[in-house]
Amino acid sequence: MSFESGRSGRSGRSGRSGRSGRSVSTVTDVGQADFEHAGGDSSYLIGDALIVQRDGLVPSGAITGMPGTDVTKDGPGRMMRLSPIERASVIQSELIEDMDVAIDPKSKSVALSVRTTAKGHPYAPLASTARPGIKDFERDAAIVASYADLRDDRLPEIYLQVDDQLSFFGSVTPLQPTGFQRTLEMLSAALDFATMLTQRVKLGLGCPRPELFSPLIQPVIQTPSHGAFPSGHSTQAHLVAELLTHLRFPKHAAAPLGGKADEQVLQLYRQAARIAINRTVAGVHYPSDSAAGALLGVAFARLLVARAKNALKKSGTKDTTAAGYSFDGAKYVSTADDGTALTRDYHTGELAKLLSGKDDSAPPCKAFSPRPAPHFAVLWKKAEDEWKNRWG
Amino acid sequence: MENDSPDFDGSPLLDHLRLLGLGAENDGKSPAEVVDALGLDALLDAAFGDAQEIAAVFRTALVHYGLAAAAVGAELRPCPAPGKLGTLMPEAAMPSDPASAVVIAVLDEALPIARPALNTHLASLWAMGASPRGAVPFGAEVTGTDMAALPAAAAHLRGASGLYGALGINDIRTPTGRRMHGVRSHGASVMDLAASNLGDQHPVIGVGFPAEVVEDTSGALLPFFILCGVLYTAARTRALSAQIGKSCGSADLALPAVLNISYGVLSGPKDGSDPMSRALDALCAADRPAITGLGPVHVVWPMGNGRQAQSHAVVGPKTGPLSLHLLPDDRTPSYVSLRTEAPADGSFELRAGLRLPGDTGWTYTPAHPAPGTRVDLTLRDGSIVRAYCLRETPAGAPARDMILLAFGPTATRDPSETPLPAGCWTIWAETAGEVELFVQRDDSIDGLRSGGRQARFGHASYRRFDDAGREIERDPDPVASPIRRARSVNAYATGRDAWRVGGSFDRDGSVVPYSGLGTIGVPRPSEGDVLAPSDRSRALGGVPVKSFFGGAGLRESGTSVAAPQIARALATAMTELYCPKSGDWPDRAALKAELANRAPPGDPQTRN
């Protein structure tokens, strides 16, 4: 038995649940630790101890209840008292309940619609994605192979970005957990929401991965089992870039890549494009996957921002609207002089063309006002505050 | 006993590549026809004007290597109608003192001309492997004016990639364009050392070789493109002299040019008799005929990194056989050359014998072949080795007989092709006199996966390491082995007027153990051998260079990075030592003295 660990009451316990693996040894650590009990994690032993303790502290079995106070706050008001996991569940169900996913096998497209604030809360189209044809994929396999030369340079990024993009965004804008806990939680919620929908779209469209078109591509990471188009990584990366732009640089949100763009904003989108391109370098995505994912990510971000702002706004003020794009992968080509369709690459320059609303492959959808998302908005507001406080 | 109709034309290496199918789409054009088809006469004219003798030597060399253009095939896109040359540089970028300005030219691959450190005083770049554009026979030209005219918006989102994209020189689909996307490139490291932030007195000319050419492990394809690059440099330097001269009112401005060519091979005559060396010597000679608009020309080469490569041997009648190690998984041909002085009666006495790994029987080249013979030797296991028999006639030296043996790959992807057996072959030279043998280079620069592996000679008498485990730096005196470190110098760099740069440790100035050696005891007529740092110390290799996009500091090693430091020093020294009163430029001796003056003392503390 170690008496030293009894002093802070904590350090002996943290290894047991394995959750954080941290040993907490100072008083200031106390507020940050996420134990289940006040001083440590659950275990059979603490249950056992509490049985015996109660026997010692409680004189008789019968008790009478004291006067209580009824709940005054609403759901969002009480949300921060939940554990992060419980909170995430609440937000996911709130965000998802307003979505409709419609697959049209004839046009090989998936349409995502959202309930609006109009009477009766009808659905309005947020974004749609139509897949390229099989011949397009066949043609585009060549550019995936062309990118292989960059694998040597990019392998560390490729490997880490398989499941960690935020560390990379954290290099171009502050995201350290100690200062931006709620921002990260908000981003997490947004990413989970996007993933749920993106997987539906991928499954609905069923697009073949580059490895199926040639044994010479030899991707440097395992090709995932879900469909190629749209790219989940591109969706996530551009979602993060767009969300952080609206959150931290709202003045630039309308034209993030325009002539007067701020370098802080440009770095976010360059980062997003690079993450997407790295997937092509790895050999698991076509550039059109990245383009489709980028537009979806941007659409999701605009939706979440509008839903948050509509929850936070003063009554009587105007709603924030959102609009995505109707992306047609078959039209994401460049044309040679003789009219032949050639592979169209993806990078920040192409993103700018797509976002402009003037690209043939991506006409914008009509803007609409989505319903407020008060639970998500709690995190959004806290993220805004964290950014306001960044200078200390 | 000359062969009236030789079996091959020009470079045997290129003939062998042609027989392997490279450039099959060439439709059997002769090398001269290839040269004509590319419109190189116009470039020769732009380079040399009335200096017909120099143009003739260059033309001979171009024809000798002409098959290289065909071998590059699809990557070489001819300009259907080369445009007229406009102003090369904005006036604001022109030298402030044109009389003492010196052009610096970098002939390399993947040159990052979007970097401000390199393009502020860019005159022009020839991106040989890019889509046709501008006043060049093939590939794309980008002038300083073109760079300055690019809208800022082109770089707004993607930085340099946006600029290269706007210029059409970074197409990811092509091997050459792909080189413009990575973290580093050979050309970026070299150009950074040679030309970054040199200031307005040194207009910059760049030549970017096609990736396929640089990737070829034997270096057989390079001389053609080096010669084209030199022609381009001369032509643009002359155009620059005319334009700057017009702008500042000095009608007879003749800018000098310092060219850095950080490439090399292990095998060759190494006496200035090869066609490329002859051409460059004609251009660089101190007493060269006058060419309007072109001052003195200096070409700077690396000594090469082959001192320890065991790629050079000298055998006599009593030496006996040598081992020839052909490495496994070598996907490109390997070449061995044998040279000996031709007998006085003109007969071809030289014969080579080959023995397969583990075999006891020999296969020989034919006895007394006519020079110009190409013959396939069938070895005892059915493998084929191709032999070329030539007679070389270097100016002012006795004639030489040469046999070039071309070995196929030891690994092939196509199951219908049979690779040669890898392992310890034996080679033997039958001769009355001394025979000099070389193994040609068979590896590629960093980042280009050519699949070549470097073959080498072996002999029981050769020691690579001393008892303390360090690489032996010099052949012992007297020589103890037929395998020699001497004459491991870069075979491209053996013209009379070539500046050859060896590598040294920056920390103490000592020569690095791998830096190529010239001919020991034979002083070079033009004293052009100098040293520059190629590594910090034995513990820390390389010298600091910038990444391709300029955002990261990297290290790069080898005599390839020593050479550009000398090229840079030569350019600045020439400007400094120019005598305005007489209009004279410093001669080679003065430049060599100045280089020695500027050589930093080895200092453990202060640098790198």
Describe the structure using short key phrases.
A: 392 residues; alpha+beta; 2 domains; four-stranded mixed beta sheet; 13 helices; B: 608 residues; alpha/beta; Rossmann fold; eight-stranded mixed beta sheet; six-stranded antiparallel beta sheet
How is this structure best described in words?
The complex is a heterodimer of chains A (392) and B (608). Chain A is α+β, with helices and mostly antiparallel strands and 392 residues long. Helices cover 45% and strands 8% of the residues of chain A. Chain A folds into two domains: 4-57, no CATH class; 84-388, Phosphatidic acid phosphatase type 2/haloperoxidase (Vanadium-containing Chloroperoxidase, domain 1). Chain A has 13 helices and six strands. In chain A, the strands form two sheets. Chain A has a four-stranded mixed beta sheet with strand order 1-2-3-4. The relative contact order of chain A is 0.13. Chain B is built from 16 helices and 21 strands. Chain B has helices spanning 12-19, 31-37, 40-48, 52-64, 67-72, 116-119, 144-149, 153-156, 160-167, 175-178, 186-195, 211-215, 222-248, 275-284, 559-577, 588-598, and strands at 103-108, 122-127, 140-143, 204-208, 255-261, 294-302, 312-315, 322-326, 334-341, 351-355, 363-364, 373-378, 384-392, 400-407, 423-430, 435-439, 456-458, 499-505, 529-535, 543-546, 553-556. In chain B, the strands form four sheets. In chain B, strands 3-2-4-1-5-6-18-19 form an eight-stranded mixed beta sheet, with helices on both faces. In chain B, strands 7-16-9-14-13-12 form a six-stranded antiparallel beta sheet, covered by helices on one side. The chains are: A alpha+beta (392), B alpha/beta (608). The A-B interface holds A 142-143, 146-147, 149-150, 152-153, 257, 259, 261, 266, 269-270, 343, 345, 347-349, 351-352 and B 153, 156-158, 161-162, 165, 172-173, 178-179, 181-183, 447.
